[in-house]
Amino acid sequence: MSDVEGEVVRVAVVDDQRLFAKGLSGLVDMLPGVEVVGVAYDGEEAVALCRKEEPDVVLMDISMPKMDGISATREIRNLLPRTAVIILTGHEEDEHVFEGIKAGAQGYLLKDSDPEDLARAIETVHAGNTIIAPDLAQKMLSTFEAGRSRSPQLSPPPLTERELEVIRALAHGMSDRQIAGSLGISDKTVRNHTSNIYRKLHIFDRTQAVIYAIREGVIDVEELEYRPPGGQ
């Protein structure tokens, strides 16, 4: 799974439903190139576990006692900026998607996803990219449209054609190197374009770039896939 031969992706599992957590932990531990470093059953345990083990990826439930998954995600990301968080959610929890993104989650996956999708999600966020299940992306788009109908229409900030190409690539989970190769430019130029996009849109990370791309129709929701283009 890892791009570096011999590297193991260290994963923490967090869910207050013990049977689900233990079952998910067993499943993840069987994935090639992945090791489960611990299981937590509430947000406070999750923060303590991450402080001790410093996992590469955390699979995070939302609704939990003591501390919910959104708050735990925020604390973990502040404590360990290099640790990626994938929030596992059911359809009934879609209203929490935006809060999770604000808290720093890099992935959203439905709990009934296939094991192959889970493996690709772990691989994607570990590589520094963003992943959102297409079903959730569609619901995000619907929520954006509902919000638009209740508020004055504002023109989106002007992006150049090249910036639109870059943000489309970001939304598909491509790395800087993949974007540079596909567009025939240097990694540094990609980073410069990305910085300009963030500044113009008042956003701070790739997840927010995905949201913008969906909202403004830069990409179609149906284009979103679990495996980033150019990935193995």
Briefly say what this structure is.
This protein is of the alpha/beta class and 232 residues long. 49% of the residues lie in helices and 12% in strands.
Q: Which CATH class of the largest domain?
A: Alpha Beta
Overall spatial form: globular
Strand order of the largest sheet: 2-1-3-4-5-6
Order of helices and strands: EHEHEHEHEHEHHHHH
- Beta-strand portion reads 5-15%
Count the E strands: 6
Q: Architecture of the largest domain, CATH level 2?
A: 3-Layer(aba) Sandwich
- How far is it from the N-terminal to the C-terminal residue, by CA? 9 Å
Name the CATH superfamily classification of the largest domain: Response regulator
Backbone CA Rg: 17 Å
Summarize this structure as a short list of keywords or feature phrases:
232 residues, alpha/beta, Rossmann fold, Arc Repressor Mutant, subunit A, 2 domains, six-stranded parallel β-sheet, 49% helix, 12% strand, disordered C terminus, DNA binding, Two-component transcriptional response regulator, LuxR family, DNA-binding, CheY-like_superfamily, WalR-like
Report on the architecture of this protein.
α2 packs parallel to α3, α7 crosses α9 and α7 packs across α10. This protein folds into 2 domains: 125 residues, Response regulator (Rossmann fold, 3-Layer(aba) Sandwich); 77 residues, Arc Repressor Mutant, subunit A (Orthogonal Bundle), CATH 1.10.10. The protein is globular, with a radius of gyration of 17 Å. The N and C termini lie close together (9 Å). It has 232 residues and is α/β, with parallel strands linked by helices. Helices cover 49% and strands 12% of the residues. It has a 6-stranded parallel beta sheet with strand order 2-1-3-4-5-6, with helices on both faces.
